[in-house]
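On clarity, I found the account of how folds are encoded harder to follow than it need be. An entry of this sort, consisting of the sequence and the corresponding backbone structure tokens, reads as follows:
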Amino acid sequence: MAGEGEKIEAKSCFDCVQSIESIYTGGSVAVSEDEQRLFAVCNEDISVVDVGSGRRLASLKGDTEVVTALAVKPDGAHLVAASRSMQVTVWDLATYTAVRTFRPHDAHILAMHVDASSTLVALGFTDGTVRVWDIDRGYCTHNLRGHGGLVTAVRFHPAADGPHLVSAGENGDVRIWDLARSACVAVLRAHDSAVRAIGFDAGGGVLVTGGRDSVVNVWSWARRALERTIPVYEAVEAAGVLRGSALGARVVYTGGARGVLRLWDADSGRELAAQAAELNAQHALADVVYLPRAQRLCAVTSDQNLLFYGARD
């Protein structure tokens, strides 16, 4: 320690011991099935992040255009990403290298989801088209038309009793497709604005849709019928069903314009819990990613933060 009156020399330069880099700049976010890796858009690239430590494991270099959608295979082998160039790139997650690039359509991709077998990827386009591609073999298996405008969400049904796909559009229509017949078998109409979220319970018997019309609709999959409309009084950007919640058998989570996570009883429509708003926070929630194994929710904010919350209680 310097003595009294002794002159202290200020250090003129410093060595960098750690660098904290940006991992997310807005857009799509996905988490691997084992919940160990998170994939987030970072400008034109994709950050691969260790969920436990927050450390960036790799950066997947894009094609200089903004990434518009991404999804990871449940088997963890590949990540599929689309950009504004209308190209789709398949990344090998063992080596973090691109193994395939293709242009599936002459329109931009807004929505994407991979099926449970890790074989098929569904793509929702700005011209109202939905296409399904075989990821490994690189060819289109289904070309589905029916939406009159933007396709805003797509999701495969989780059950293995026949391949079904659900898609939603900006006009509020939700379509159920039987992929074995390449046919639309139901059109669900209970939204009057863009549907941004499609979710299922673990068994696939309950379908949940959320939209910018400030409601969440709960549907019976077997009857293709509306069971309940839950007014949430905010534009909904994300919705799904929790598994094994202590709050009840069918608990729906939502996130949207208010910027807080909220939980609802799907049977009664009652709000069960709401996250306390952060002081002086102005953000909305652009998405919510559910991690069922860890029972956590990753809230994706409009000001480009990724916030993790426990969902057990």
Notes: The two ends are 51 Å apart (CA to CA). The longest strand covers residues 139-145. Residues 16-20 have pLDDT under 50 and may be disordered. The chain has no helices and 27 strands.
